[in-house]
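Posted in: Protein Modeling Q&A

I'm a second-year student putting together a small comparison for a lab meeting, and my supervisor asked me to include a predicted structure for phosphomannomutase. I've never done this before, so apologies if this is the wrong subforum. The sequence is pasted below exactly as I got it from our records. If anyone can share the structure token output, I'd also love a short note on what stands out.
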Amino acid sequence: MFKKFTKKKKATENPAAPGRGIVAGANAIYQVTGIGLAIAVLILVGTFVFLALVREPAVRAAQMENIAGNYAEQQAGTVNAYVALLRQRLAGSAGSATAGSVLQGQDREAIAAVERELIAAFPDLVSLRVVPVGEMGTAEFDSGEHGLRNHIEVDMVRRAAEGNPTQPESFRHEDRWLTSLAELVRGETEALNAVIVASVDNATFATLLESVNPGSGHYALEQRFTNRDGSTHTNTIAEAGSGNVSSYESFAVIPDTNWRIAFTPSKTLMATLAVSNRPLYVVLGMCLAAVIGGFVIVAVRIPKIIEHDTFRILAAADRKTDLTLAVPQLVDVARQLRRATLRALRQAAEPDRAIAVESEGEILDFEDNDLGADFDEVLDLDTEIDEEEAATVAIPTGFPAHIFRAYDIRGNAADELTSELMAQIGQALGSIAGERDEQTLLVGCDGRTSSPALKSALVRSLLETGRDVIDIGLVPTPILYFATQHLNAHSGLMITGSHNPRTDNGLKIVLGQQTIHAGGIQQVRDRVLRGGFSQGKGRLINEDVVATYVDQIQQDIAIAVPLKIVIDAGNGATSELAPLLFEELGCEVIPMFCTLDGNFPNHPPDTSDEANLTALVQRVQDEGADFGVAFDGDGDRLAVVTPSGRIVRSDVLLMIFAQDVVSRNPGADVVFDVKCSRNLTDLITQCGGRPVLCRTGHAFMKQKMAETGALLGGEFSGHMFFGERWFGFDDGMYAAARLAEILSTQGDDLDTIIEAFPTSVNTPEIRIPVEESEKQPLIERITRNADFSSGKVNTMDGIRVDFAEGWGLLRASNTTPALTARFEAESEEALDAIMHEFRQQIALVDPSLKLNF
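Accepted answer (user: helix_wrangler)
Welcome! Here is the predicted structure, written out as tokens:
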């Protein structure tokens, strides 16, 4: 038997002694650590040098230029406001009863009295003249007549008399700069017209410039003029302040004039705005200390860890015991040592022969051990260990977890999605966006009464996390999607309740041009509950992208023949934009409910409920329109009505679009959701396209379109996605414009086009109210327990069963507390049979569920 485990010190061996095959070389751990430390320090120092000498100066220069531009814009706005106010007051005076009565008689003395009366009302003016207009409708006079000073005023009066717009003009007069404006006074006839010419001393503008931001720099009001040779020059017509940092000189044009503001910052302002690099150097020092300290710890700890694992391996070399090592790379060493030990022991002649195992500086003796076990069985090191368990976040009582839905956040704005919760959501989203390197977020909102307060809370919280915010105002949701494609900011948040009741509100989220859904929404919820938000101070700017959006659609859509269109905006976010867009496209627009009202007084903002389209159907028929279109509360859905008053189901509308798109793109993918008719599948195939089925939800649709490269997609709820010629997001207004383009070029009306499609007997989308918390478990029970053995079952989204003569669908709504159902068949009898089978199977799972089909 072997002796009990003991330790005996071994004589130190001479590394150079002959016959020794193991010697100590250079310490590789210190070498690798030193190289790693040098590389890390070089990278760190290089990064901070770049930041301090390249990036930070460039950022500061950009900030300075931006600030200088803001100062110039501010003064330009001040001057513009003053001129506009002066024009407004002159126009009011010009239209007064006193001025009109004097013009009746063309009496010069009476006119002079009116001039004195008017100039008394304008203390800013140095002169005012009323110039009658001749019989031919033009002013007949020369320079010097009627108190006019020069040809500039003469030309202004002539242009005003002809009804043309005039700009304020500055000129030198008696060693000072004056500015004149002209306003037309209309009499009962053109022969009784006159022009009021008012002049102001430009010292007024200098005083105005000096009053705003004094000491910030030099402001110059410049007037541009063009010489006969075509060259452009400027005259300084007023100035104030002093500035000497010419490298940041900025200009701002004053609208409706040939003036601009030139701003040169002062050194005082630059010094105030300058940021020291000292914090950067402090951070560099801290980072260097942390890196060096980390490498030192590694260099000290690794040899000790290896020494400890080596001792454990040697100590357990012949033991039947489990062994866990801190260094996985030593596992093979342990196995080989175990096998070598077993072989040596089995070959020993004497059973009680002790085996000495070399361990640096020690001899380890073992006895009383069972050596029959295989080493691999006792040293269990092949098992993979999951070191990170999925983190679960406890949901406190009272927290409205149900508002974090499949692809957006939506709930009652009074007691669920409150301003306080929105602020927390904003902090979570700002932190998540920062972690994804998304510095700037666009924010828009719809017209609901709760939206302004929620938007204010959201923007404030985003700024507190250090994110910059671009506020695009009150817009339809497609405008936000468009802005993420058009502006240099690819993430955005849209405050909207979409088609939900007026008491609800919500949030649609785009990060990196991708609409987030299920997992992303739950991540936001968990971040709200867990906290740990980033801190910072972001910047807020306003941006109007509506005009660019309209211009982009104008460039894309070509309507060959003007159409008459009835637009029902439902008092939603498209109320002002949709009529404007179609008028710009050349259509005759008949607006309905196009006054923005967050209470939705005429009907709920849900276009998928055909009861909400009754007024539109009647108006289309009464007006003899080419078609009618309704938009939901935020404009990403549409519903269409034919000239005969027929409501076009969205899967039929998608057939029209599929024919058009696939005709130009043979083999193109067309994505549609599980609620769509299977006639759509047949039509896409016949046109040469590839039908792709997808689960319901605009976020899922966009994801599927991106995966497949599809050029067209559509949902039965009214979301339409164009990847051809557009950006792939759901946009009700653009979809309506594409329909108008198709109708204007084909020659057939909408009813005729639809009649050519295959027909079936079908239902609209049927909503079955259930508790929010019950809908998903209920669908799972029905999917698991219902027996539809006579049909083909698809559980991609709820349960859809295809039979020989039709199909039926039951699923949980992504946006409302309801189940949704739809049925289609070749005949009424087949439709009734399919609905009956669904009722029977649902009753077997939950007899208490009240069905409305």
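A couple of things worth pointing out for your meeting: Residues 28-94 form the longest helix (67 residues). The longest strand covers residues 176-185.
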